[in-house]
Amino acid sequence: MQEVTGLYVIAEMLRDILGHYLPAQYVDISMSLINIGVIFGIISMTAVVLVYGERKVSAFMQSRSGPNRVGPYGLLQTIADMFKLMSKEDIMPAGADKWMWILAPMILFIPAAAAYAVFPFDNQAVFADLNIGIFYFIAVSSQAVLPFLMAGWASNNKYALIGGMRTVAQMLSYEVPMVLSILGVVMMVGSMRMSDIVAAQQNVWFIVLQPIAFVVYVITATAEINRAPFDLVEGESEIVAGPFTEYTGMRFALFFLAEYANLFAVSAIATTLFLGGWHGPWLPGWVWFFLKVAGMVFLFMWFRWTFPRLRIDQLMALGWKVLLPLALVNVVITGVGMYIYQLLS
Amino acid sequence: MNEWAYTAAFFIFAAVTVASAVGVVTKNDLVHSSLLLALCFVGVSGLYVLLQADFLAAVQLLVYNGAIAIVFVLGTMLTRRSIRHGTNHSEADAPSRLIGLISGLFVAVTLGVIATTPWNYSSAGAVQDTPAVLGRLILTDYMIAMEVAAVLLLAAMIGAIVLAKGVDEE
């Protein structure tokens, strides 16, 4: 029996305490509700922390000091921004398709939040350890295309519509190499369950065995979450703000909440697949998990503030002519390598 | 308790599926129809989850709902925006009545067959690790079917590329 540590112990303690007051079946239900609450807490906290982090990192990259007026080191800047967004007037464009326009930012948040169900935050701390774990993540996160398109189309604005069209072109074509790069890892583990993938990296992280897959994954993930240098969807110098052009106040904030939730999500997947998940010496597992995710988030921010934006044709050429063949070659190399390894051992 | 939740979930997913499917046919706007079709597929994948076919549910979401985005784009690009609220007419003339009649007959016949078939209930439990079993079946027993589908898709892809490249005028 494996020694249990960290978050699982906390969950067991909670379960014990609840068990004194409630019958067994209600304990299970309330534990799921608590887990869901914690996940939503994590999502909202990451948005707040990452917006502040992004502004500080961008300031660091550009030799500025960034937010430093609201609270110590400007830590309360995001809170102030939130109040500002909440108090803004809610403007709906005249020719908008009303219900689609209202629903788009809300629907966008659903796949972003649903993806969090399969993240292994710590040993045994995963909300739903599905046997198709990573495939579930791919399926759910691919649903983010439609809300962007809905927002772009319903706004009745040509820049928004162009942004929506670009979303489809970009997200659908970068999904293919992304899935193929993940396939390399799945082949080595022989399972799509997240806990199995983490367990297989107890000794060697997959970034060592799958360096090509890691590079392809990081590039395609940047494109999937529409961040610079692949932020053509909202390229402000070309199409104002793409699908967000006509949104104000909290509706606009919902798009950003989803964007930062997705940023955390792809970083968490990179951590789980390539950086050994919660495995690490001395510190508890969840601390390692969040440290590695923070490292990945910093990498994505570093990309954003140091690379210039690509042109749309360069983007498509990179996706189909470079990343896709590279990912396919990686799958072949992985297969051959596994066969040779089996022959030798 | 569990049984009750299962039944409730089934009826919710079934209602979502049927209601959005009706919406696909009756909506006047092509874009609304395609979005409702996406909702319909989500409902179907929910039903797959209830049948413990989770791999199939994920495939349903990934493949079918991914294709909806393409339907959406084609729907916007091939219809004129000025008449966008009449892009999916259901006219009350002879052809659509005939089609309605045929579909109604089809539904009636299917329901009749379902009601009169003596069903065999399997006592075997659901397969726990579906991806592994599916993978083994596809690469052994159903190898030829998969290869045929793969060749068909390849032919379709080559055809699409040829069509998209256009004719060389020389």
Description:
The complex is a heterodimer of chains A (about 350) and B (about 170). Chain A is mainly α and about 350 residues long. Chain A has one domain (about 90-345). Chain A has helices at about 5-20, 25-60, 75-85, 100-115, 135-140, 145-155, 160-190, 195-200, 205-210, 210-225, 235-240, 250-275, 285-305, 310-345. In chain A, helix 4 (about 100-115) runs antiparallel to helix 6 and helix 7 runs antiparallel to helix 10 (about 210-225). The longest helix of chain A has about 40 residues, at about 25-60. Chain A is globular and about 65 Å long. The two termini of chain A are about 30 Å apart. The model of chain A has no long low-confidence stretch (mean pLDDT about 80). Chain B has about 170 residues and is an all-alpha fold. Chain B folds into two domains: about 1-90, Up-down Bundle (Four Helix Bundle (Hemerythrin (Met), subunit A)), CATH 1.20.120; about 125-170. Chain B contains six helices and no strands. The interface of A and B includes residues 97, 135, 136, 138 and 149 of A. Chain B: Pfam families: Oxidored_q3. Chain B: Keywords: Membrane, Transmembrane, Transmembrane helix. Chain B: One of its GO terms (molecular function) is NADH dehydrogenase (ubiquinone) activity. Chain B: This is NADH-quinone oxidoreductase subunit J. Chain B: InterPro entries: NADH_UbQ/plastoQ_OxRdtase_su6, Nuo/plastoQ_OxRdtase_6_NuoJ.
CATH class of the largest domain in chain B: Mainly Alpha
Specify which chain pair forms the largest interface. Answer: A-B, 25 and 24 residues
Structural class of chain B: mainly alpha
Number of helices of chain A: 14
Low-confidence stretches of chain A: none
- Rg of chain A, Cα atoms, Å: 21 Å
Shape of chain B: extended
Main beta sheet strand tally, sense and closure of chain B: none
The helix tally of chain B amounts to: 6
